Task: inverse folding
């Protein structure tokens, strides 16, 4: 963030709206910021005049535990929210990257999520109402406080994924989930890529009901490949299946899953308690802990074998190491490309034209990489609507310094 | 359009052009392994489930009209059904649409792959009641049938006892697949129409749990215990698929069945926070006594979605108007309790005048701004959703032939 930008810290909804209007009227560039956990997402920012720091708007305005809903200000951190909701045995079931810092507004604006997406979806699936501030100083709400509601346009969906480019989120209402009584995770070291594809098909066709179903795959870099013996050249592929419910239900499902998937595993272990917690916290940061460009990517779940085969070829061709982590049955996750800028750009371009992958967005990359390849890629026939939406909501191009999708 | 809408959302305006999508009724792609089905908008909701049922899958949203309602209409209305509490609405099950904008441009929102970058235009179009675009293809997610399904029917002497049972079930951290309630008038009507063999009670509660067998077994015992603790007079647990189907037949027939007990009736759709259900239902009972019109109540108790059925006789002078007034008053109770004008039937033409009760001028102006992004001329389903349409598709003056008529593609209705 530039040192010369003015930082405004609004404490009320009206102050958010006023800050947006002032910036728009003064033809300034304004970036909305929570904890800054997603500062690197999207394009390299152009000039930033004003940073709208939302962290004073950090209250839970209502937790209607009997109705399992909560209305939360944009600057509240997910972690603090979930500590408060836990007092009534409830949770906002999201586990995005940087979950210890991420704010509610940033989560909804980027529609970010993590392994729990398998069961609970993304913020757009959980949000039921929103209060927005727009660049003409309007404060408006859409949706409502009840889980079932189809009155008017659901602008809480429109704002999901908008990356602060069309309006500021002041507060949002979400439906909540009960906290499960018990949890266990099956960690499976997978024999090879074909075995992984078989596991994905088996789990998706089964009546198992995990809350998370993750795949982690690491290609072996060109240099490593030369050093390693022939026997060690297999890439490391791991699957984690998490079950959460009543203890007896968790145990039954873990047993059923282990029995069904044993044939494709080189090792299989059930983790609980501290071991399980550390598995998931390591998994959350694993892709981010090492430098390298990171993209969001999607694929059809049963194409996972082809997808990983393609990553192997790209890694070999570009002399890069590639790391994928994602939701196996959703077909979405992050791909990290370790290599120099040229290698990263080559792989991103190949992913953009891939028959298997789609929706490739750069969420971390050097200015050089973002200078050589657009972070968002083509919006296809949606561009028309994005342009029109931007004109309607942000006619002076005030918001988000060109970082967002529109 | 199959004509099953309950809010006049598909009513043509005078002189307007109707685009019927009924001929677009093909199932285009069934991908069981990836749990995706692509259909044209005229395919009925239930036909999707029928296409995938042999493989052990189903399409989750199940409005009561599912045998006849079209998926295009479901997308327009963001249709729900009895199982929304656990599984969500149409918007949670549609992965992508192909749509034609009012300007004639073809756009693809979402798709087979998740995470289309940028604002969620798909989520906006679902539930926009045909005012933003004409949907021409829909890709939906299908779900694996759960390992176990267990349904019970509990009878209570009062709606408060039934409501308290629902509260305790949810407070225990149990999310049933469905929680439905019917009052005595609705029970009698259903009994007369489809003979589901419901007990003659003040209130019946239907609770359905689904999921892994071990989970359903454990939680079902707790649900039964909660119902007994609140004085359930009878509890019938469906032992067979046939018994379960019979219970649901009684519930799903309830709207149509009111014709057995009243010459005319008005179906209302409103939402209250679940915890305010007993209070709002008591207000409805008081209104019933005051208005002299009988009101049957059928509702999705799990998510606070009320469906009061207001009985009247149009042959009696003033009763039809009185029913409209009663229906409006019930909506005001919903809004006062912090709820919504509609849970699943939509605003349509029926409720557009009530939108200012729920939304401020600024709220509605922002929605209009979004509308203009898609439909600057306001030609797409005019006169719906918003209280004062800025533009109207109605063309005054003498008859003018539409180009589609000249081409032999359209007829005057």
Result:
């Amino acid at each position: 963030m530039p040192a010369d930008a003015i930082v405004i810290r609004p404490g009320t909804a009206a102050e958010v709206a006023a800050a947006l209007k002032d910036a728009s009227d003064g033809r300034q560039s304004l970036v909305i910021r929570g904890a800054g956990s997603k500062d690197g997402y999207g394009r390299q920012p152009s000039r930033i005049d004003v940073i709208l720091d939302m962290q004073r708007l950090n209250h839970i305005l209502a937790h209607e535990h009997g109705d399992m809903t909560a209305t939360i200000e944009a600057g509240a951190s997910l972690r603090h929210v979930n500590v408060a909701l836990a007092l009534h045995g409830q949770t906002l079931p999201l586990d995005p990257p940087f979950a210890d810092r991420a704010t509610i507004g940033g989560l909804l604006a980027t529609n970010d999520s993590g392994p729990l997406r398998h069961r609970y979806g993304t913020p757009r699936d959980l949000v039921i109402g929103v209060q927005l501030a727009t660049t003409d100083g309007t404060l408006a709400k859409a949706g409502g406080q009840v889980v079932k509601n189809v009155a008017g346009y659901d602008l809480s969906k429109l704002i999901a994924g908008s990356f602060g480019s069309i309006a500021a989120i002041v507060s949002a209402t979400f439906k909540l989930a009960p906290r499960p009584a018990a949890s266990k995770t099956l960690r499976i070291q997978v024999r090879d890529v074909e075995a992984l594809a078989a596991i994905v098909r088996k789990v998706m066709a089964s009546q198992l009901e995990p809350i998370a179903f993750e795949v982690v795959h690491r290609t072996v870099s060109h240099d490593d490949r030369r050093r390693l013996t022939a026997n060690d050249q297999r890439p490391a592929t791991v699957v984690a299946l998490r079950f959460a419910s009543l203890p007896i239900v968790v145990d039954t499902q873990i047993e059923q899953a282990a029995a069904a998937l044993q044939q494709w595993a080189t090792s299989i272990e059930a983790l609980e308690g501290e071991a399980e917690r550390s598995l998931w916290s390591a998994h959350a940061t694993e892709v981010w802990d090492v430098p390298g460009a990171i993209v969001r990517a999607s694929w059809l779940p049963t194409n996972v074998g082809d997808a990983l085969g393609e990553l192997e070829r790209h890694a070999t061709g570009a002399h890069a190491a590639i790391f994928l982590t994602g939701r196996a049955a959703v077909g979405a996750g992050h791909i990290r490309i370790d290599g120099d800028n040229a290698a990263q750009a080559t792989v991103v371009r190949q992913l953009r034209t891939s028959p298997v992958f789609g929706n490739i967005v750069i969420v971390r990359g050097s200015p050089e990489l973002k200078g050589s390849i657009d972070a968002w890629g083509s919006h296809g026939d949606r561009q028309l609507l994005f342009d029109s939406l931007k004109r309607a909501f942000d006619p002076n191009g005030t918001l988000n310094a060109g970082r967002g999708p529109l | 359009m199959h004509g099953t809408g309950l809010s006049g959302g598909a009513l043509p305006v005078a002189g307007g052009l109707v685009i019927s999508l009924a001929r677009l009724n093909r199932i285009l792609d069934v991908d069981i392994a990836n749990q995706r089905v692509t259909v044209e908008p005229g395919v009925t909701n239930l036909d999707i489930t029928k296409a995938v049922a042999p493989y052990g899958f189903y399409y989750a949203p199940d409005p009561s009209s599912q045998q006849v309602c079209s998926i295009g209409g479901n997308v327009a209305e963001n249709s729900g059904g009895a199982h929304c509490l656990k599984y969500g609405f149409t918007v949670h099950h549609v992965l992508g649409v192909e749509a034609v904008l009012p300007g004639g441009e073809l756009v693809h929102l979402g798709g087979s792959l998740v995470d289309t970058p940028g604002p969620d235009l798909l989520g906006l179009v679902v539930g926009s009641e045909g005012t933003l675009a004409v949907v021409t293809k829909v890709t939906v997610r299908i779900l694996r049938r759960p390992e176990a399904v267990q349904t019970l029917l509990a009878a209570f002497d009062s709606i408060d006892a039934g409501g308290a049972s629902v509260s305790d079930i949810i407070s225990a951290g149990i999310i049933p697949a469905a929680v439905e309630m019917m009052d005595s008038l609705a029970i009698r009507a259903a009994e007369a129409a489809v003979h589901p063999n419901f007990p003659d009670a003040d209130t019946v509660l239907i609770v359905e749990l689904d999921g892994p067998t071990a989970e359903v077994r454990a939680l079902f015992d707790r649900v039964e215990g909660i119902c007994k603790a609140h004085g359930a007079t009878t509890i019938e647990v469906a032992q067979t698929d046939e018994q379960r189907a019979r219970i649901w037949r009684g519930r799903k027939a309830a709207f149509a069945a009111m014709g057995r007990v009243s010459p005319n009736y008005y179906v209302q759709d409103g939402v209250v926070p679940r915890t305010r259900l007993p209070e709002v239902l008591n207000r409805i009972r008081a209104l019933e006594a005051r208005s002299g019109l009988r009101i049957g109540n059928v509702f999705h108790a799990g998510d606070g979605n009320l469906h009061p059925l207001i009985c009247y006789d149009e042959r009696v002078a003033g009763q039809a108007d009185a029913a409209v007034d009663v229906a409006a008053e019930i909506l005001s109770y919903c809004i006062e309790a912090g709820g919504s004008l509609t849970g699943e039937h939509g605003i349509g033409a029926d409720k557009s005048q009530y939108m200012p009760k729920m939304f401020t001028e600024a709220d509605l102006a922002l929605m209009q701004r979004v509308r203009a992004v898609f439909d600057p001329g306001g030609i797409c389903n005019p006169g719906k959703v918003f209280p004062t349409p800025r533009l109207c598709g109605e063309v005054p003056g003498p008859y003018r032939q539409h180009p589609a008529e000249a081409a032999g593609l359209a007829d005057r209705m």
Notes: Chain A has 14 helices and 18 strands. Chain A touches chain B through 82 residues (CB under 8 Å).
